[in-house]
């Protein structure tokens, strides 16, 4: 089956056209940022763009194409500077993707196949940058891809957890870490009073960076990168 990107390249016209895949994607991203993925329909996008609903179907075949365009558009926001070593390249990519997901939290609502494996030009560009940086280590291609996927797995897992915490706080009306801990205190107190979780209890009493999510992310990322560096010698 012909991919969306091949079809778009074959049918590309002047950038000044009234409707384009880029405009459809931008409108859909704006809707999702404000109201979530469920608000995206072909009719809603057409309304936002001021065109007839059927006009969009000249560029996309349905919502799946729109989601693919949205993923590609926002991943174009990730900037990885040139001239960096492999660790700095992967660090810049990881920090950029975290910032991207926090800006567009609907990304975590996508099916895993789209969140992690969607092949779009901008996502392929980032993968290419990472693999090219790892090439300097003279790794075989399978190991290089495994290293890249290890870092991206950390990023997706950590950012999904962060978005999940945000959603929990929003659903319960909690606005701070202290309010969140107070809201969870009844079940937490019971669990800790069983005496089964002494290491976690120590963290509860001694942890000083419970609400510093960026520090937590960066520290975890450094451990991942340092571990890879040690393993590769």
Task: State the main characteristics.
Tetracycline Repressor, domain 2; 2 domains; 233 residues; Arc Repressor Mutant, subunit A
How would you sum up this structure, described in words?
With 233 residues, the chain is an all-alpha fold. Helices cover 68% and strands 0% of the residues. The chain has twelve helices and no strands. The protein is flat and about 65 Å long. 20% of the residues are buried. The mean pLDDT is 90.
Architecture blueprint of SSEs:
Blueprint: H1 4-10, H2 21-35, H3 42-49, H4 63-75, H5 86-103, H6 112-117, H7 121-134, H8 141-172, H9 177-183, H10 185-193, H11 198-206, H12 213-232
Helical residue percent? 55-70%
Strand percentage: under 5%
> How many angstroms separate the termini?
43 Å
Shape: flat
- What Rg do the Cα atoms give? 21 Å
Number of helices: 12
CATH superfamily of the largest domain: Tetracycline Repressor, domain 2
As for the CATH topology of the largest domain, it is Tetracycline Repressor, domain 2
Please give the number of β-strands: 0
CATH architecture identity of the largest domain: Orthogonal Bundle
What is the subunit arrangement here?
single chain
